[in-house]
Please model this.
Amino acid sequence: MKKMIVAVFFLAAVTLAHALPQSELAEIQHAWAVANYQTPEDEQEEAFKKLVARARQLVERYPDEAAPKVWLAIVLSTDAGVNGGFGALGKVKEAKKLLEEAEKIEPDVLNGSVYTSLGSLYYQVPGWPIAFGNDKKAEQYLKKALSINPQGIDPNYFYADYLLENGQPEKALEYLKKAMAAPPRPDRPLADEGRRKEVQRAMARARKMLD
Model:
């Protein structure tokens, strides 16, 4: 019995020693918001290059954690969208792989961010034979994200954006209003501010389509 107790204590200590520090994840989240929303366009390429390296290090240090994989995927896909270029396709393919790995570890991690991110990738990237884009899969993933986090700003915004891309502005406005009414995230004020501006632009686009 004593040996068993010691063994359990040892395993618990090892688990704690290798647990992901939330402060490190928060630093990546904050740096992403700064790079995406507050960095001048001519400086974004370098900012994302550094951020990809930081996020990749976090994944390498905590290979069994889902959250770092999700955030590396988010950084890579945002980098691909912002900077484009020949490397964009490789970045989104790696992001998809990372998200699928994260789903196997912890499907509901970060309030369904796996599914929000996968859904956004599937409708934004080109389809076959260039890439893996697929509107049907996009909608499935985005709806799954909403089932996990129905009031969240990100799942509502991305589903609305998907609807706009598919010519459904009236339905998109419903979700954009939900996105604007989403409760603030105290630990992510910059991300909320930037996303709300995107929601407002999407609302203007939807209303213009309805005119």
Observations:
- The chain has ten helices and no strands.
